[in-house]
DUF2637 domain-containing protein (Microbispora cellulosiformans), 99 residues
Amino acid sequence: MCPRPGTTQIYGALTCGFLGPSRRRSPRRGGQGRRGAMSPCSRVDACIRWTTTASVNLLAVIAAVVSYRQIHELALRQGESELGAALVPLAVDGMIVAS
């Protein structure tokens, strides 16, 4: 849990410093806050964001490889040349990514 003030409840999930550590300025130091200091909650959030990003990227790579292989094999079965069969999956997946 994240006991920092300013946390909000969204759809049952506690969000806590999603955009990174707070950079509030401390008035007792002449307006200069602690730069680079992260609370334990921010470190946990950073770790969660990193592992989530890594997991999503890994799944995206796996899906791209499987999709390419399936469309390539389908194009070859339908009588497409090697070059055409190599380009068709790129065109199909490229259009999906672009949209």
